[in-house]
Amino acid sequence: MTAQDTIRARAKELLESGEVATFIGWEAGRFANQTTPLVITDAADADKLVFDEYCVNTLAKYVRDVVSRGKVGLVVRGCDSRGIIRLVTDKVIKREDVYLIGVGCPGMKDRKTGELLKKCAECRHNNPLEFDEMAGDAVEKPAAAERFAEVAEVEAMAQADRSRYFESVYAKCIRCYACRDVCPCCTCRECFVDARRENWVGKQNNVAENRFYGLTRVMHIGDRCIECGECERACPMDLPLMKLNRKVIQDMNDLFGEFESALSLEDTTEPLIEYRLDDVEEFM
Amino acid sequence: MSVVENNGAYPENWEPKIIAFCCHWCTYTGADLAGLNRMNYPANVRVLRIPCSGRMNPQYVIEALNKGCDGVLVCGCHPGDCHYVTGNYYARRRMLIFKRLLEYEGLEPERFQVRWISGAEAGKFRDTVMSVVEQVRALGPLNLTREIPAFELPRIPDDEDAFNAVPEEVTA
Ligand code: SF4
Ligand code: SF4
Ligand code: SF4
After folding, report:
1. Candidates A168, A177, A182: which one to mutate for ligand 1, based on the most atoms within 8 Å of Cβ?
2. Stretch A206-225: mean pLDDT
C-alpha cells in the first residue's frame, strides 16, 4: 500500500467514525504536477486525496480555520508537524484538536522545473516530529544545504550594497500579505497590518511602508519561525524572505545559545521572551 | 539603508535630527538632572519618554527612520535597576537582535544606538547625546528610499502576457 492509499483509507475511517469533523490533505490540481490543499468533511470525498512529490503547500495553518468545527485530521510531513507544534505552543489549538497522520517526505518538486523546491532543499526535518500514526516509513532526503549560507552571502556585502539590495527587495513587495497568511507563526487574531484604528503601517505601497511591514514581520516571527520556507515560496514577487528570517535566527543562536523552534511539544525555547542576567552586554 | 552617492549634496546648515526614547524611571530623570545642573548638550536630540525600555517597540525605530530622523537612541536603566525588575533584560535581547537586523539591511551602526543611563548619570546622558550627534553628523543625512523608484515600476501586463501565462498543457 502506498502512503496515498493509507491516507485515503484512514481519512475515510476517521470521517466515517466521526472521530474527526474535517480532514485536510491535498487534491490534484487543474494542471499536471500540481496539487492544492483540500479540506473534506464527507468520507465519500476521501478518494480525492493525493500524496505525490508536488504537494508543496504546508497544511498546518489551515487547521486554525476549521478547528471550530471539531477535531481536525490532517497529513503531516516534517514541516506540517512543526507547524502544528508551533500552533499548540502558541495556544492557537490544543494537541487534542488534531489527529496527525505522519508521512515521510522525500522533498517536494517545483512543478515548472521538476527540481527540488528551495524550501525542501533547505529543510532539516523532513520526517514528522509529532504524529498519531504513520502512513508508511520515514524516508531519506538529500542533506540540507548549509543553514545560514544565504545570510553569510549578504553579510559579506559592503554596507552600501546591502542597503541598496534591501531597498530593491522592498521595492518589489506588493503587500499582498501572502507571507503572513501561510505562516504558522502568524496567528494573531488581529495582525498589526489590519489594525485600522492603531494604523501601525500605512496603506501606501512604497518602500518605506514595505520596509516597515517586512521588518516588523521578521521581528514578530523572530524566535518562533520554524524555517519551513512557506513565506518565501508563497511570495508572488519572489522576495528573499528567508534571508531575513534566518538572519534573526542566526543571531539568536550566536548570542543566546543553539536552538531550533518547534522541535517538540516539550521544548518551547523562545529566546526573545526569555532572558539571562549574564546576557551579552553591548549597551553600557 | 542610506545611499552614499548623495553624500555632500545636502545643505551646509543641515543639522542631524536624533530621537531619543528614554525610560521614564532612569534616563528621563537623568536628562532632567542634566537640565537642573544646567549642562549644555546639542538641541538636535528630541527626547521621548517611554514607560520602560522593555516597552520599546522596534516599530518605533523603523517609523522614526522612515519619517525623517537621522538617528535613534534608546536609553533605559542599567540591568538590575529596572523599575519593573525585568523590563530591560527583555529589551536587551530584543535590541541586540534588532540592531543586528538593521545593520544587516545596511543601516550604519551609529544611527541606531542603545545605552543604559541611570537617573543619577546626567553627565553620561550629556556625553552620550553629544557623541551620537557628532557620529551622525559625520555620516550626513539618512537618505532612505521611501517611494518605489520609478525605474522599478513593473510593466503593466497586456493580453499577450496573459496568454503566455497560461501553462502549455492548456493552450496546446
Ligand atoms: S508575500 Fe511577498 S509581496 Fe506579498 S506581502 Fe509578503 S513579501 Fe510582500
Ligand atoms: S519560514 Fe516563513 S512561513 Fe515558515 S515559520 Fe518562518 S516566517 Fe513563517
Ligand atoms: S505579522 Fe505580526 S501581527 Fe501580523 S500575524 Fe504575523 S505575528 Fe501577528
Report:
1. A177
2. 95
d(CA A252, CA A271): 7
Determine the Cα–Cα distance for residues A120 and A123; give it in Å rounded to an integer.
5
pLDDT band at B151 (very low <50, low <70, confident <90, very high): low
Q: Which of A167, A256, A283 sits opposite B145 (nearest CB)?
A: A167
Which residues, 6+ apart, have CB-to-CB distance to A119 below 8 Å? A79, A228, A229, A230, A232, A233, A242
- pLDDT surpassing 70 at residue B8: no
Mutate to test the interface with A, among B62, B73, B77 (most CBs of A within 10 A): B62
CA-to-CA distance for B142 and B9, rounded, in angstroms?
12
Q: Which domains does chain B have, with CATH numbers?
A: 18-146 (3.40.50)
Q: Angle, to 10 degrees, between the axis of helix B122-139 and the axis of helix B27-36? A: 100
Which of A160, A247, A281 comes nearest B104 by C-beta?
A: A247
Which residue has a Cα nearest atom 1 of ligand 3? Answer: A217
Per-residue pLDDT tens for A48-93?
Answer: 999 999 999 999 999 999 999 999 999 999 999 999 999 999 999 9
User: In the structure grid, which three cell numbers stand for residue A279, read together?
Assistant: 546576557
What's the whole-number average pLDDT of chain B? 89
What's the DSSP call for residue A224?
A: G
Angle at CA of residue A170, ends A168 and A174, nearest 5°: 120
CB A35 within 8 A of CB A44: no
